[in-house]
Amino acid sequence: DQQVKQNSPSLSVQEGRISILNCDYTNSMFDYFLWYKKYPAEGPTFLISISSIKDKNEDGRFTVFLNKSAKHLSLHIVPSQPGDSAVYFCAASDISGGSNYKLTFGKGTLLTVNP
Amino acid sequence: EAGVTQFPSHSVIEKGQTVTLRCDPISGHDNLYWYRRVMGKEIKFLLHFVKESKQDESGMPNNRFLAERTGGTYSTLKVQPAELEDSGVYFCASSQETGDTQYFGPGTRLTVL
Prior knowledge:
The structure holds 2 protein chains of 2 kinds. Chain A is mostly beta strands.
């Protein structure tokens, strides 16, 4: 039973354009969401996060949008650069639950940014 | 500041053997997590330490897996005896405070033949 779903295994965009990566979740207890980027043979690298009390968080070229009613979040990368090519993981946790801080991950989306 | 380190980076063992993975968290991080990614699947939580105490071990697959964090610094994850389905990449992560962002190590790729 996958609680965090990334339905697009891969995405290809042109350099300079916008990359939009999507993530859906089913567990209504999740209240903190993160995006990690992963290069081959490396561990996931934290990119950006958002709390459920917000609907948008921005950090440079990266913006995460959260739609709680739809249980959907998305990561926008503008403008996309070839160095952004990596696997992007969506993750969620239940922070307010008090003791359950484990991250639940999606399967990842491979982003390829073409020069 | 050094990141999370893991040793070894790769391990190839025969079914039935024992393997011990090590994780050194970021200095000063009380929280340490183990995760595993089996091929084709998502990264899954195994367990969470706060200092030397196991806070949550709900993700441990079975009693062939034993995690320790003596002294609240580095952690080891022992698999004994290893089975074919234990193959995958084992990630360690740490955070300063419980609920803070978790920072991941490079992982240990375990192959059981």
